[in-house]
Amino acid sequence: MASSASKGSAAASTAASSDALDLKQNSDDMAWEFAVCCNPLDLQRVKCKLCGKEMGGGVTRMKQHIAGIKGQVSSCMMSTPDQQKRCREAYEAPQVRKRQKQQKEEENRAAVTIDLLEAEGNDEELAGIGNSEGHKSGPLDKFVKPIDPSIPVKKFQQQNISDAIDKDRSYKVGQYLARWIYKKNVPFNAINDDDFKQFCEALGRYGPKWKPPSQHLLREKMLLQEVERTRELMKPHEIERVATGCSIMTDAWTDKKRRSIMNLCVHCKLGTSFLESKEASAIAHTSEYIFNYVLESIDKIGINNVVQIVTDNASNNMGAKSMLKEKFPQIFWTSCATHTLNLIVEAIGKLKQFAPIIIKAKEMTIFIYAHHKTLSLMRFYTRKRDIVRPGVTRFASAFLTLQSLIAKKKELRAMACSDAWEGCKHTRTKKGKLAHATIMSRAFWNGVSLCIKVFEPLVKLLRLADSDGPSMATMYGELLSTKKAIMAAVENSEKDYLMIIQAMDTKMKGRLDSPLHIAAFMLNPKYSYADSTIFSDVEVVAAFMEVMEQFYHDDDEKQNIVLNIDFTS
Q1: Spatial separation of the C-alpha atoms in residues 102 and 488, rounded to whole Å
Q2: Which of 87, 376, 503, 531 fits a disulfide with 347 by CB distance 3.0 to 4.6 angstroms?
Q3: 460-519, pLDDT tens digit by residue?
């Protein structure tokens, strides 16, 4: 009995340790690099990996401990200056974001300018919120109480007898807003929009009895004024295009009415702006048509201001690329990094190591979601968490779903072994038996883990390419790092990584390893300072020279300055 109890205690301890480890691994907080949960039943009790000190307060207290922030916990004597700096920055990050948010709100409020208030009668329905009697404007108001963005708004806030009464009145105002949002199906996150916050500030400064503009005003005069305002906002972009150049990005898509739309956007140092769009449903998207469309945009922006054209890898775009090179040899034509990376991961997903795993996962999830009984059972065991996670692309959805499956492995196995699963008529079908075999298969879960290890570096690269910031300077270098990470994921097994690397090279050839990408890689201090041999690499230097010759086409003097003076100095 004692032996049995001892074994049970040991098993419980092991399970607790496993849960603690899972808790650490499933959290995105950087403090888990230095902490481990002591007891899964007490999530706030953590232990420092460096010095072994146990403490309450969770990861927040751990950051204070590692960073040496006094007041709540003693400092860790084993942490390095770099670790202290990282933990201090992570600890102060929420406060920094809060200050930035407050500053942005103050700037939005300060940007509101309204003329003097207007006085009109009373409204019985709104009497519960406050007196609607308007402010009586006088000749001295512009000197005594101006609405000036340079003067803090706090000076004009109404003094309330009780904060509780003011809170109740504010809540009642919010109810009127909520009622309109519900009726008109306005997205809830619309209230976070800066323009809406400025509208609320302007309305509050105006006072009672404001009358909304008519539909005619909205669609005519005010719309035209907003167009002019937008053009004024774009003038700094136009100046920046002349100073440092820009990229033209083109894309074709189909809307809900099956109309073919072609968009043109312009990207410069200040960001991306929309240029124009046109419907092309009745016209074939040939290489000549795309070339002429891009040519029109180049004429609008100016040939000397355009550095590159960015499109996807469709054959008609590649044909337009050849036509552009003949007419404007100094302009680069670059493949869309996001589209190319999607082609890479799709090719890797079709390899024999990964395709069967992805297919089995897809069949299993389709079976569970196809029947309300199995779906309800799955959500019962996963505590109402779905296993299918939609992503922006088909590959992203597959990767996120695999991550979700591995995180809920225990729950899914418990579900497949339950009496409710056995009693469900759908699980006794052929597809149900296959789903059960998949869930209970150790080889399947090992394959899912391998898929995640291999695809995770690619997902990080895809997020980099799909982010708002520039990615050209880091794309080639990150691709090299991704290859190394994939090789490490398969434990440097040559038979495993050779096919993966070959699939990557096939899809990225001439797209993400173009001379322009390699030249940007060489000029990026992140890579060149870390490895000075880059400047002596024959392939890298040849790519850089090719880019300079194309960029300064037919200008031997500038080519000589860049290649023989700037580059060698």
Answers
A1: 44
A2: 503
A3: 888 888 877 778 889 999 999 999 999 999 888 888 889 999 999 999 998 899 999 999
Q: Which residues of 345-382 are buried (b: 16+ CB within 10 A; e: fewer)?
A: beebbeeebbeebbebbeebbebbeebeebeebbeebb
How many Å separate Cα 455 from the centre of its chain?
18
- 528-561 pLDDT, tens digit per residue, is 888 888 988 999 999 999 999 999 888 888 888 8
The span from the CA of 479 to the CA of 507, in Å, is: 12
- Reading the block at residue 192, the tokens are 């976070």
**Strand pairing report for 246-254 and 306-311:** parallel
- Count CB-CB contacts under 10 A for residue 213: 10
Query: Residue 516 in contact with residue 472, Cβ under 8 Å?
Result: yes
pLDDT digits (tens, 9 = 90+) for 404-450: 999 999 999 999 999 999 999 999 999 999 999 999 999 999 999 99
Q: Sort 544 into a burial class: Cβ within 10 Å, 0-12 / 13-18 / 19+.
A: buried
CA within 13 Å, CB half, 6: 3
End-to-end CA distance of the chain: 81
Distance CA 562, CA 460 (A): 34
Query: Tokens 């194309």 identify what position?
Result: 550
Rounded CA separation 487/491 (Å): 6
Give residue 553's region: left, alpha or beta (phi > 0; psi -120 to 50). Answer: beta
Which two tokens mark 518? Answer: 């390699």
Which helix H or strand E contains 565, and what residues bound it?
A: none
- At 96, which amino acid appears? V
Q: What is the SS3 assignment for 325-384?
A: HHHCCCCEEEECHHHHHHHHHHHHHCCCCCHHHHHHHHHHHHHHHHCHHHHHHHHHHCCC
3-state SS record for 265-312: EEEECCEEEEEEEEECCCCCCCHHHHHHHHHHHHHHHCHHHEEEEEEC
Q: At what angle do helices 442-465 and 472-489 cross, to 10 degrees?
A: 170
Which pTM does this prediction carry? 0.69
**122 in Cβ contact with 134 (< 8 Å):** no
Query: What is residue 138's three-state secondary structure?
Result: coil
Q: How many CA atoms lie within 13 A of 328 on its CB side?
A: 21
Q: Are 208 and 127 in contact (CB under 8 A)?
A: no
